[in-house]
Write a structure and sequence with these properties.
14 helices; single chain; 73% helix; two-stranded antiparallel ribbon
Length: 332
């Protein structure tokens, strides 16, 4: 079966256990901002987190013993990874269970992002040292990386509003990291997400909750920081576009409309498409398909593929907004 199959199987089993025994304590009741119409358990992300933790630990142990030479992550590196992800998982699970204040959530995200930068280094910003000096450049790079990581964590959480969308995108993203960076450990997370998708694709039996979405955002950030080279790191940024572009576009749109950006809403492009009549599956498949296309462009064309992905993402946003505007005008 292999470690990937073990990761997927354990994830599916763990999610089934959460659904079977804990769903009554983690029930997501529909409200005016919800895309679902019936009470659905949340917190299922804990299942793929536990599976990934167990199987990645096994992989590191086998790698250190020389039985899996392709697994180059050390126990120290594995510990640094989980030093970042564990605080996010804990506060996310508590938030799913009884709620956590925004200040506490962001404080934990800042801690996780700081630990990520401490363990894996800041995101490379070429040319910064020439203008500011090495010491200032390193400090500024670290600060900007921490801010960007907390944004990525939150953006991933924001887009987790339809059945299968974040989990499906995550399968492609972490498969890409495994292939592009030659880091098979990320393939185990992709496999664990596949095990979870069995329960999360529309109609979802369980949601991943904040415990899952924030951990995925944090893991994506760590993967980008672990890129083997600066060009690969910058090219790989494009794999986040299906999530980041929607979130940033919605944020800018709300600012221009002078709306309270801190108020919960249903104005993301993916949510508006679902409200316009697209099914959960159609929206999720579109986002997953876009991520596959971006992954293929980067893998085949490198930095040029990344630039093309950015351009195509902007075009896609424009087409989506135009479609929604025309549909609104037709219904008026």
């Amino acid at each position: 079966m292999g470690l990937a199959g073990l990761s997927a199987g354990l994830s599916g089993l763990a999610v089934w256990g959460i659904y079977r025994w804990f769903s009554a304590q983690l029930l997501d009741m529909p409200n005016q901002r919800s895309s679902h119409t019936r009470p659905t358990p949340r917190g299922g992300g804990l299942g793929f987190i536990l599976a990934f933790a167990a199987v990645s630990g096994l992989a590191v142990g086998l790698g250190q013993a020389g039985q899996l030479p392709q697994i180059e992550l050390s126990w120290w590196g594995w510990g640094q990874l989980w030093a970042v992800l564990l605080p996010l998982a804990i506060v996310g699970l508590v938030d799913d269970r009884r709620g956590v204040s925004a200040r506490v959530r962001y404080g934990v995200q800042l801690l996780a992002a700081t630990l990520a930068v401490s363990g894996f280094g800041p995101f490379p910003l070429p040319g910064l040292a020439a203008g500011l000096g090495s010491g200032v450049a390193i400090a500024l790079s670290a600060i900007l990386t921490v801010i960007a990581l907390t944004a990525l964590i939150n953006f991933t959480n924001f887009v987790d509003g339809l059945d299968g969308i974040v989990a499906g995108v995550g399968v492609v993203q972490f498969s890409f990291f495994a292939l592009a960076f030659h880091q098979p450990i990320w393939g185990l997370l992709a496999a664990a997400l596949l095990g979870f998708l069995r329960w999360n694709w529309h109609p979802a039996k369980i949601f991943m909750g904040d415990v899952g979405s924030t951990v995925l955002g944090g893991a994506c950030g760590v993967a980008l920081l672990s890129a083997p080279s600066t060009p690969q790191a910058w090219s790989a940024l494009a794999i986040t576009l299906p999530i980041v572009a929607d979130a940033v576009y919605t944020l800018v749109r709300r600012l221009l409309r002078q709306e309270n950006i801190f108020q919960a809403h249903r104005f993301h492009l993916y949510q508006r498409l679902q409200q316009a009549g697209w099914s959960h599956g159609q929206v999720a498949a579109t986002w997953v398909g876009a991520t596959v296309a971006i992954a293929l462009l980067i893998l085949s064309l490198g930095p040029l593929g990344s630039l093309l992905s950015l351009g195509l993402s902007l075009v896609a946003l424009g087409l989506g907004e135009g479609y929604l505007q025309r549909r609104t005008a037709t219904q008026a």
